[in-house]
Design a protein that fits this description.
It is built from 4 helices and no strands. By secondary structure, the protein is mainly α. Helix 1 packs antiparallel against helix 3. 2% of the residues are buried.
Length: 80
């Protein structure tokens, strides 16, 4: 599993855990309600995952990372 996939999966898990914990803390102990809360929580990260222009997970993220690495390498050369 590549780094981008790990970050996306972590985002899904965080959203799920926060939503289910919040629902449980508010007194929702019914498993169906907790499952719905968890499902609704992962909709946000899912929308980010399908958006090709998302700066964290979309196609543009690869381009931005490449530019940052390129700039960092050129900056090191200038300092020497």
């Amino acid at each position: 599993m590549n780094e981008k996939m790990k970050l996306a999966l972590a985002s899904y898990i965080r959203s799920f855990v926060v939503a289910v914990t919040t629902a449980y803390g508010l007194g929702q102990t019914d498993l169906e309600s907790l499952a719905i809360a968890g499902l609704v929580a992962v909709i946000g990260p899912a929308i980010r995952a399908i958006n090709p222009n998302d700066p964290a997970f979309g196609i543009i993220a690869d381009k931005v990372n490449a530019e940052i690495i390129k700039l960092a390498k050129s900056d090191k050369r200038k300092k020497k």
